[in-house]
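Protocol step 4 of 5: obtain the predicted structure for the target chain.
Materials: sequence only (see below). No template structures provided, no constraints applied. The aim of this step is simply to have a reference model before the mutagenesis design in step 5. Sequence pasted as it appears in the construct record:
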Amino acid sequence: MCINLNPQPIMEKTHSKNLMSLLYILGLSIPLFLTSCGPSVPEASPDMVQIKVMERLWTAHVRGLFLVDDQIAWASGSRGHFMRCIDGTSWTFDTIPGYSHLDFRDIHAFDAENALVMASGIEGIILRTSDGGATWSEVYANRNDDVFLDGMDFQGDHGYCYGDPINGKPLLIESNDAGHTWVEKSPDALPTMLDNEAGFAASGTGLQLIQNQIFIATGGGETARVFRSTDGNSFQIAETNMLSEEGCGIFSISFKDTKTGVAVGGCYIDSSRAEGNCAITSDGGKSWKEINQKNPNGYRSCVAHSAKADFFLACGRTGIDFSADNGNTWTQLSDDGYFTCTLGEKTGWMMGRNGKLAKLTW
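Step 4 output (structure tokens):
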């Protein structure tokens, strides 16, 4: 039951008094009563997530995945492949001419027509389309033998892309025009990397830009670390207790706001190894708490957050995990393996090896 407590202009004072008395007799305070009139948001739980494995349409391995909204999604993968969905259900795919030798490990889309793909490996290439993938143009190219791009992210038209260190400093490039042009940040402004420290291009989600704050995750060195900055010109460094050695570290980060974030990873060389594979922050990445009980069940290459339903999902070779308490505890949903995931308001997608894909609904 909900009573309209907004008086009409002609309502007399005695009417308000009588209504207040009625509320008092019923044992209801006005703030509580008004709150009960609003829509309720169900608490997130593992049971709410439904996973539907879809028919495989391509054979490429997919690590780049981006959801614009519950209808529009883009993906990218090996052998120059890209994929697009504009109706929330069906996907089309193609190979970008002249780039079939590249592995597109990250993708960012602005809408159904405009998107960027990033190549990792033998060439540092970013391509852009403004016609739904019909044509693509090269907007960044670095064919230096030492270049290995790991991931990119945007907030509006402003974005960053990062790569493995060159001469002891990470590569960081910036765009202020939705990826049409890119400018390399000065190495002097960037943190000095540890021996063997680098990023990971397992899902293109080791970098996140949120409310003009940039977070970059690393691994492979003595310590798995997170770099954070408000302008891309000066960085603060936070150490974590996550596993970090060859092939091990932070593979993915996801912030639900500027304070609350989750990092996942582990060791891709031993996918079943669950120790040191998750950490959380509640102070904007200044400090990180390792989750060593009820943590994800093995190496995880991607983590994503649903803002509408307020839960985190992590995936990797050994399964899918769910958290409704900001990463403090996790419940395994499935032991089915995927490389990457993305979540919207009511739906999400996961993709992986040889065209494997699944749709999530809640």
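Step 4 remarks: The chain has two helices and 28 strands. Residues 157 and 210 are 13 Å apart (CA to CA).
Proceed to step 5.
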